[in-house]
Specification:
CATH class: Mainly Alpha
Oligomer: single chain
Strand order of the largest sheet: 1-2
Bound molecules: 4-fluoro-L-phenylalanine
CATH topology: Hydantoin permease
Number of helices: 18
Largest sheet: 2 strands, antiparallel
Shape: globular
Structural class: mainly alpha
Number of strands: 2
Strand content: under 5%
CATH architecture: Orthogonal Bundle
Helix content: over 70%
Distance between the termini: 44 Å
């Protein structure tokens, strides 16, 4: 039951909502970040920790954020304030919405830099630059891009302009409609690459690297990384899903929808793993080489396979599209806030937010070249932004959100609205009241200690 008068139109159908939510969730996190984090953490241990985090923490928090958003029907800050008030709690819960918006804003700065890499690789791959190249040459091309502050700035700028134009002109709906075709196409191309790997080697090794349960490698750092990534990939802990929930009609079944979004998101991430690791192993590359992993591996395969120039260019085009459907969801809440809280109109609000994010992004991209020795607590600016958001802001915001939901809201109303009873309700209570918050807390405190 919504407590405010409708502030904006609702999704025309639950399908429209699923598209937008999947658009936000599926992005660079699945195809760029997931594989390199798996590689840095030694394979299946990370995958297993990640799957647990998604199921036990990501799922309840996603449902909680949509639920709160649907109740509040406003931007994340006002939503938290109003829902808290209607539950007889302090309006200072609004701060949860604020920290979420800040997290999204900071993420966009470095997200746009990587979106720029993907854009650059559309042209590189499409012009046949990788045809017949070995892993050394492909690696050298990537290093040359990183070394050039000018190149990185140009592509980061192009990516930010695309994002700002879509948000400023307000054509997000059109983008969501396009994702109906383009997202499945991305899935198909990923599976084409996986198919190529099955016939050209390295697949078995990659499969067991990703899935053979090897818990001996599991340690607290890996669990931390997996938790942070679960938040990142599902776009939770950022107020974005709260904002999206405000558009949801009462008829939408939150549990089923969350299950669908999570399954799609996870399938894409795992497919990206199966697309990338066979190439890594069959070319003797280092799985732990970090953020450049997809850019130094996939082009080798594109350079060899029949039609690789076109398939490769399409692949990077589709990743860019997936990145844009996520980046618009990262920018939108800040723009909405500026529009509501200042005298700026939508266009100016978008320009202001985008320029600040763009400047931060410049600082992030200089970490790869001119400012590589500018360190904040031992991290370059790019890594500092990534860690501050994934390991601090998102978990804190998500934790506060689930605590509010499970401990501060009327549980009978939640049970009725989620339509749960008997054992299912008991399981839900244990997960949302205890397992999810305690797990985040443990992980968060361990991070704090680790940072000290
Ligand atoms: N979930 C997106 C991805 O995996 O690429 C990234 C993202 C989008 C994170 C929107 C947070 C967000 F609010």
């Amino acid at each position: 039951m919504a407590i405010n008068k409708k502030q904006h139109a609702q999704w025309s159908s639950s399908f429209g909502f699923v598209l937008a939510a999947v658009g936000s969730a599926v992005g660079l996190g699945n195809i760029w970040k997931f594989p390199y984090m798996v590689g840095e953490s030694g394979g299946s241990a990370f995958v297993i920790a990640y799957l647990f985090c998604i199921a036990l923490i990501g799922f309840p928090i996603l449902v909680a954020e949509w639920f709160i958003g649907r109740r509040g029907q406003k931007n994340p800050i006002n939503t938290f304030m109003d829902v808290a008030e209607s539950e007889g709690r302090s309006r200072s819960w609004g701060i949860v919405g604020a920290s979420g918006i800040l997290g999204g804003f900071l993420i966009l700065s470095f997200y746009s830099v990587i979106g720029g890499w993907a854009l650059n690789y559309i042209t590189k791959t499409g012009s046949g630059a990788f045809v017949g190249q070995d892993s050394d040459a492909v690696g050298a091309t990537f290093d040359a891009m990183l070394a050039s502050a000018g190149t990185l700035t140009i592509w980061h700028t192009v990516f930010m302009i695309i994002t700002a134009l879509i948000v400023g002109v307000g054509v997000t709906k059109g983008i969501e409609a396009a994702s109906k075709i383009l997202m499945p196409l991305l899935g198909i191309i990923l599976f084409v690459i996986v198919g190529y790997n099955v016939v050209s080697g390295g697949f078995g090794e990659a499969f067991s690297y990703l899935f053979a349960p090897d818990l001996s490698k599991l340690n607290s750092q890996i669990v931390l990384a997996a938790l942070g990534h679960a938040f990142f990939t599902l776009s939770i802990g950022m107020g974005i899903m709260v904002a999206y929930g405000s558009y949801l009609g009462q008829e939408v079944n939150l549990l089923k929808t969350a299950r669908l979004v999570i399954i799609l998101d996870t399938v894409i991430a795992l497919a990206a793993g199966l697309a990338i690791f066979p190439i890594i192993f069959s070319n003797g590359l280092d799985p732990a080489s970090g953020p450049g992993l997809i850019f130094v591996s996939l082009p080798i395969a594109f350079g060899k396979m029949t039609g690789g120039t076109i398939i490769g260019a399409m692949f990077f085009l589709l990743i860019t599209f997936a990145a844009v459907t996520s980046s618009i969801s990262l920018l939108e809440p800040s723009v909405e806030l500026l529009e509501e809280r200042t005298s700026l109109n939508r266009t100016m609000a978008t320009v202001v937010a985008a320029v600040v994010v763009w400047l931060l992004g410049i600082a992030a991209l200089l970490s790869f070249n001119l400012w590589s020795d500018v360190l904040i607590m031992g991290n370059n600016i790019f890594d500092a932004l990534d860690k501050l958001t994934s390991k601090f802001l998102l978990p804190i915001t998500g934790l506060a959100g689930i605590i509010f939901f499970a401990w501060r809201m009327n549980q009978d109303a939640i049970r009725a609205e989620l339509n749960l009873s008997g054992t299912a309700w008991q399981v839900w209570q244990v997960v949302s009241k205890f397992i999810a918050p305690i797990a985040v807390l443990v992980v968060f405190v361990t991070t704090l200690i680790g940072m000290g």
